Amino acid sequence: MLLAQSGYPLLDVFWTMLVFFGCVMWFWLMFQILTDVFGRDDIGGWSKALWTVLVVLLPILGSLVYLVAHGREMGDRRWAEVSAARTAYERDVRRIAETNGSGGDPTTRIVEAKRLLDEGAITHDEYESLKAAALGRSLGEPAH
Hints:
Oligomer: single chain
Strand content: under 5%
Shape: elongated
Low-confidence stretches: none
């Protein structure tokens, strides 16, 4: 009831919220543009400085000009970064899964262990341990 008794009308509350979220979006947009400018390899330092001055001193005009001139390239660069990060993540997950024994063909893993044994990179006990892990049994468990 205290809010209803104050001299701050409901439409002013909505307007204040709209302005606040508009400012948050504006700063987010400036952050995205400046991140893109400084992440680019195809422009030099003076071009980066010029875009920074333009976006900071004339924010509306500078941001609109940058988005019109480089908006599609900005999206393409972001898409490439996300795709590269996802590919690296998936590669790491596969590598870790294979290393932990939860993935990969057992025959291939045994052949690789045998090759390492023949090269002298691992001992016979290590070979037996890798073989048992590939077959999915503990080292002391007998073969069926």
